[in-house]
Amino acid sequence: MRAGENTLASVERLAKRFLRGGHWKHPLRAWRLWRAERIGREATYRECWDYLAATKDTAYLMIDGSETEEGFRATGRQVAEALKEGLFISKGHRVLEIGCGAARIGRELAPHCGFWHGVDVSPKMIDLARTRTEHLSNVSLATVEGPSLGMFPDNYFDRIYSWAVFFHLDKEDVFMYIQEIYRALKPGGLAYYDTWNLLDELGWKRWLLELERYRDFGKKPLHRNQWSTPQEMRRYSEKAGLTVLHVLEGFLIQVISTKLPPDIPVADSSRLLAELREHVMRAADHLLPPLGIVGSVAEGDK
Ligand SMILES: C[S@@+](CC[C@H](N)C(=O)[O-])C[C@H]1O[C@@H](n2cnc3c(N)ncnc32)[C@H](O)[C@@H]1O
Hints:
Rossmann fold
């Protein structure tokens, strides 16, 4: 039963789910699935990530493999610079990071934008982020429950990005975040998100490595790494309403997309799109991860 729900409401909800999900066709299978989920129930994203961020050291290791504050700040500066250049972030912009962790990037990026917001599923990560950004007056942080940005109005952000997060999420959650990006992004704004590429040779190598890692593990933890393809990421983006401007395809799939203003004449929309695309394609190389990092990720070092 959910918190605040009475027995009748709970039975009604489960019955509806049972009927909607087509479980009535295979009651025995439905019962087994239900039992299996409860016996070996996986922790939530929040429980997983709060556990991983129990101390600053483990949080940094999980985020980028850094062992020192200096190392963590250095990679933060690198990524912040990449995003600033690749997405033309400027002082007037309201920017959101989904899955901001300990504000590795936000701490370095906030001085270059109007306002920087960071959200993360883990309260422990947000605590770390708060401590690391308390000297900055244009930062706001919040925890999110699931793939929802419900605390923000429609058409609110000039830029939304999610760096090194989507490959930790189930596909449905990735898609729901992309839908939320579409809702919360201003028309003409830019969005960036990345994930791991199954079609890349190094991506495949790391995939095999994880297959071995988890072969005898029984249940995989929820924060496990997951893979996608450029086609799949394009599909999610377009079905969410976004227009894809450019996709970098390497070990990472890096998508840069926009939300076209609704109800403008086709000619204006085509002109805007052509301009944005040209701009973005010229700057996109800034976003490429350094090759050394890709190599060590493919080897499973990070
Ligand atoms: C590898 S870290 C990257 C952190 C940050 N983007 C960076 O590059 O420094 C992944 C982050 O995603 C967060 N995360 C995991 N699942 C999430 C979810 N469902 N919604 C929001 N954040 C999530 C984790 O708590 C963690 O802070």
